[in-house]
Design a protein that fits this description.
The complex is a heterodimer of chains A (624) and B (374). Chain A has 22 helices and 23 strands. In chain A, strands 2, 3, 4, 5, 10, 18 and 19 form a seven-stranded mixed beta sheet that branches. Chain B is mainly alpha-helical and 374 residues long. In chain B, α5 packs across α7 and α7 runs antiparallel to α8. The longest helix of chain B is centred in the last third of the chain and has 34 residues. The two termini of chain B are 21 Å apart. The chains are: A alpha+beta (624), B mainly alpha (374). The interface between A and B is large, with 43 and 52 residues.
Chain lengths: 624, 374
């Protein structure tokens, strides 16, 4: 019976186990159904969503930056070049411990204090998720050494890029400007997709003005990447369109000659071809080497340049605003002729001063004894102030301003160099608006001799002189002549802006130009020292009373004495009967225009026209 | 042991005469067919998941061959022998676990390995078999359903190794070992009242468990609740795995064409997350086929349990079948984001030898239970 009961137990047990097995099977099915429901959710309901995510994972769009257009001078000499360079970049946002990473990198490749300092500075100006260079110009060996260890440095990459270089350095710094890293402020103003992958942008001069032509269009490539971001293959690509090459009017040989002609003086020289408005030379001294600016100049070096009393970063040629002094007299003379206020024979008596009718104040001529009776030619040759006081008074400020505006004074010339300033031709309206004061008739006289509030840039003087040489045909000055799409057979000429000054007949131009030749050729001329045997020069000297430059310098007796001296000016064109070059020269604190500025202009014209560089002893010229 | 003579008597009652060749070799044909099909599928997937590394597939094949051989060997052992070895194996296993905690090798931040000369051995694997064997041994000693005292004894026997393993820490194995014991209790007729009470108590004590978790375990739970909270850390696995499965759709991207796996976005793609590779390359269709194979194996195991001639065999067979299911469920649940990430491989598909050998030995036990009929 024991066996029976055991067998009964067995049967009950086995039924129990069987029942539990069925319950277990049901639970198994239920659990796996849960998994299947989950899978259906992922793979059917959300399939589209995850397909997109999977595609996003593996496909990355990478911008391909275009190569920047090169810049050539008139004879094909390269002024701005690109050279390939490897740099080590850190994407700050992707690195956890920055200083530890840099220290670890320093164990592999050379990283000195200058690199760290530059990195720190550029980091502050960076655009988010754009690499910041730690080291530049890696050697091939350093590239190889980093590549071996690159897995240890997420967010650190070697980048091959084309770096701008300026083989002529200081010579072209002011006219070309330079390119530098795009900062956050610039980022806000550019088409970010066009600049995707581009790190540099024109910061001044031609580089900035012609940014649109030089930059080109970014391309892109769709690449398949793995989880570590390594590119496995290119799925689709659109090539970048390289920037256009610029061919300039500027002649580097003339630019050098003009720079050398200025010697160690501070000042500016602008030379223009009157027939085209092409800028043949544009010099501002002192200058600086633009190359360190491309990759970010060290702050010590930068501060040295920024706070130098000579202001080497300041482009005097287009931003320096000086009273034009007597160099404005030919243009005032033209206004008198064209308006019919005077003619070539009409004389004015100069007793050495001038009084406005009914006023007691004397406006002095530079020659105390006076010039006696002078007509236009004598007044220009000897730079008689009284003649021009009378002329200005008779014209009135409004007419004077209009005629001067025709030559380009008081407005930006439109040159393709970024940062140009407009100068100032004062007027009744201007004075009431800006100074909230009434215009006094005496101020018109001062404008007539280029002093007072009247300001002009050296560029404006050169443009006005070229317009005069051109007998009233004004060309907006241009540094770049043509742009060439890479691979295109020929360069495309860039548009020209020109206009003719109303009024003025041929005789009047002849009289004016003849008078200006006499400034150089007459024994009494203020620039007689630069007379050339090879070609005829038409010119005008000028002296400007010193103003703001150097106002906030520390007191230094020797220095102050020098900076208190007048600026020397000279404008000229040559040959007088077939002008091929118009030049404006300013030598800061140079003194007399005839003795200091005129010889500079002569050297520039010699270099361009192939004349003898022998200059007769300028001696001590009379007047200004 | 009072029941031994009776068991021996029952042996003599059965007729050993008309068994087929496979049965005489102690092989269960349906189970063998299911396992072979599963392993074949596994090798095909592995070739893709290991990025066409034929060498890796070969090593897995060698391991599988050895594991199958071991399964056949184990299948020769009659259940009454197993029953006798249950407790000694258990004691040996627990002693080794203690040894691991004292002198074990550290790997992946956890102490799991015991070096025996050149061999490195994970004692926790032994417990995956020893625990269900011992619980079955405890329960089979008296008529089912078990009395409360036996349930307590069995629970204690389960808890000792589970706590030791969780301390290593190896949460995945601890769950599997606990599961192996608990399923035996369940098959053995653990009363529903106890099940409900324990379930309620566990829910109440869950917060307490939180304070005893290691940081990385807590992180996993947090990440499970919100994978996007740490997309580059622990959440990365689950996000990438869901992308892989979801982008596979109904029919998949095709064998060797999974971008998530081949471009290395999917981590652990040939080990714990191989299920996502299947989802990506073969779609829902492929996964349903795989789950069907698993289901068949589990069904066959439960059938062996039901048909087993003795209580010990029934309990052990049921426990082994259900722990196999736990493997499948925990792994697929983890990869699809239903469960937190715990280190449980997809059985017989994931690359690696340790758990595979244990599983195959388990199937050897199942075959032995099925074929040693009297």
């Amino acid at each position: 019976m024991r066996l029976d009961s055991i067998l009964a137990d067995r049967q009950r047990e086995w039924r129990l186990v069987g029942a539990r097995a069925i319950v277990a099977a049901v639970l198994v099915l239920a659990a796996l159904s849960l998994v299947v429901v989950r899978l259906a959710h992922l793979q059917i309901a959300d399939h589209e969503h995850f397909s997109v995510l999977s595609q996003d994972n593996r496909v990355k769009v990478q911008p391909v930056p275009p190569s920047r257009g090169l810049i050539y001078d008139a004879k094909g000499v390269v002024l701005a070049d690109n050279h390939p360079s490897f740099s080590l970049e850190i994407t700050v946002e992707k690195v956890e411990n920055l200083s530890a990473t840099i220290d670890a990198l320093a164990a592999i490749i050379r990283v000195d204090d200058k690199d760290r300092e530059r990195f720190k500075r550029l980091k502050g100006q960076r655009v988010r998720f754009q690499g910041v260079p730690l080291r530049l110009n890696l050697t091939p060996e350093e590239v190889a050494r980093f590549s071996l260890d690159s897995y240890r440095f997420p967010g650190v990459d070697v980048r091959a890029e084309l770096i701008r270089s300026y083989p002529h350095g200081e010579l072209t710094a002011h006219v070309l400007g330079y390119v530098g890293r795009i900062n956050q402020e610039e980022m806000d103003h550019i088409d970010t997709s066009a600049y995707a992958g581009t790190h540099f942008i024109g910061k001044g001069g031609v580089e900035k003005y012609h940014e649109g032509l030089l930059h080109g269009q970014a391309g892109y490539q769709q690449v398949e990447v793995n989880a570590r971001g390594r590119v496995l293959r290119t799925l689709e690509a659109k090539s970048p369109v390289a920037g256009q090459d610029l061919h300039l009017f500027l002649d580097i040989a003339l630019q050098r000659a003009a720079t050398e002609a200025l010697g160690d003086n501070r000042g500016a020289v602008v030379a223009i071809d009157p027939r085209t408005g092409g800028v043949l030379a544009l010099v501002s001294k002192p200058s600086f080497d633009p190359n360190p600016f491309v990759e970010g100049i060290g702050s010590a070096d930068y501060h040295a340049l920024l706070y130098s009393p000579d202001k080497p970063l300041y482009n005097r040629a287009v931003r320096g605003q000086y009273p034009p002094g007597s160099t404005v007299k030919p243009f005032v003379g033209f206004a008198g002729l064209a308006a019919g206020v005077t003619n070539a024979r009409k004389t004015t008596y100069c007793p050495g001063y001038y009084r406005l009718p009914g006023q007691s104040h004397s406006y002095r001529c530079w020659r105390r004894g006076g010039h006696g009776a002078v007509a236009l030619e004598a007044a220009l040759v000897q730079s008689c102030d009284v003649y021009f006081y009378v002329l200005a008074h008779e014209l009135g400020i409004e007419r004077l301003k209009d005629y001067l505006g025709g030559f380009g004074f008081g407005a930006r010339t439109g040159i393709d160099v970024a940062g140009e300033l407009s100068g100032l031709v004062p007027s009744r309206e201007w004075k009431e608006r800006v100074r909230k004061q009434l215009w006094y008739p005496g101020e018109t006289l001062i404008v007539g001799i280029g002093q007072g509030a009247f300001l002009a840039t050296p560029l404006q003087l050169a443009v006005a002189t070229a317009t005069l040489a051109n007998r009233g045909h004004f060309f907006a000055p241009r540094v770049a002549r043509a742009a060439q799409v890479p691979g295109a057979p020929r360069a495309q000429e860039l548009p020209v802006f020109s206009r003719a000054i109303a009024a003025g007949d041929a005789t009047q131009w002849d009289q004016l130009i003849h008078a200006m030749t006499q400034v150089v050729e007459s024994p009494r001329g203020t620039a007689k020292g630069i007379r050339s045997r090879d070609y005829r020069i038409a010119g005008k000297t000028g002296t400007a009373q010193v103003f703001t430059l150097g106002k906030n310098q520390t007191y230094n007796a020797a220095r102050l004495a020098e900076t208190m001296r007048d600026h020397a000016l000279f404008v000229a064109f040559a040959p007088a009967d077939d002008p091929r070059i118009a030049v404006a020269v300013i030598v800061e604190n140079g003194g007399h225009g005839g003795t200091v500025a005129a010889p500079v202009a002569r050297k520039v014209m010699d270099a361009w026209l192939g004349g003898s560089t022998l200059i007769d002893d300028p001696g001590v010229a009379d007047g200004d | 042991m009072a029941t031994r003579p009776v068991a021996a008597g029952l042996h003599q009652l059965s007729d050993p005469g008309d068994a087929g060749l496979l049965t005489r070799l102690h092989i269960d044909a349906p189970l063998l067919a299911g396992l072979l099909l599963l392993c074949a599928c596994g090798l095909v997937v592995l070739f893709s998941a290991m990025d066409r590394d034929l060498g890796g597939v070969e090593r897995q094949l060698v391991r599988l061959t050895l594991a199958f051989a071991l399964m056949f060997a184990v299948a020769q052992v009659p259940p009454y022998q197993l029953r006798r070895w249950s407790l000694p194996l258990y004691v040996l296993g627990v002693l080794m676990l203690v040894a691991v905690l004292l002198v074990g090798d550290v790997g992946k931040g956890a102490q799991r390995w015991l070096a025996l000369g050149a061999l490195r051995f994970q004692p926790s694997e032994l417990l995956k078999l020893a625990v269900p064997m011992t619980v079955a041994w405890v329960l089979a000693d008296r008529p089912l359903p078990p009395r409360l005292a036996r349930v307590f004894a069995a629970t204690l026997l389960i808890l000792i190794p589970v706590v030791l393993i969780a301390k290593q820490p190896d949460l995945g194995t601890a769950i599997l070992v606990a599961g192996a014991g608990i399923t035996v209790l369940f098959i053995g007729g653990l009363s529903w009242r106890v099940i409900l009470m324990v379930g309620a108590a566990a829910a109440a004590l869950a917060p307490l468990l939180w304070f005893h978790m290691r940081d990385y375990q807590r992180q996993r739970v947090l990440t499970f609740l919100d994978p996007t909270s740490d997309p580059l850390g622990t959440g990365y696995h689950i996000i990438q795995s869901k992308i892989a499965i979801g982008s596979g759709g109904l029919h998949g991207k095709g064998w060797l064409n999974g971008t998530q796996s081949h471009l290395e976005f999917l981590p652990e793609r040939h080990t714990d997350f191989i299920f996502a590779v299947i989802g990506e390359e073969f779609g829902l269709t492929g996964i349903l086929v795989l789950l069907a194979i698993y289901l068949f194996i589990i069904y066959r195991g439960l059938r062996i349990a039901v048909q087993a001639p003795d209580t010990y065999g029934k309990l052990l067979a049921g426990g082994l079948s259900l722990v196999f299911f736990i493997y499948v469920f925990v792994n697929t649940g983890m990869v699809t984001g239903l469960l937190p990430v715990v280190g449980v491989p997809l059985p017989l598909i994931s690359y690696g030898g340790t758990s595979m050998v244990t599983l195959m030995v388990g199937f050897g036990l199942l075959m032995g239970i099925q074929t040693h009929r009297k």
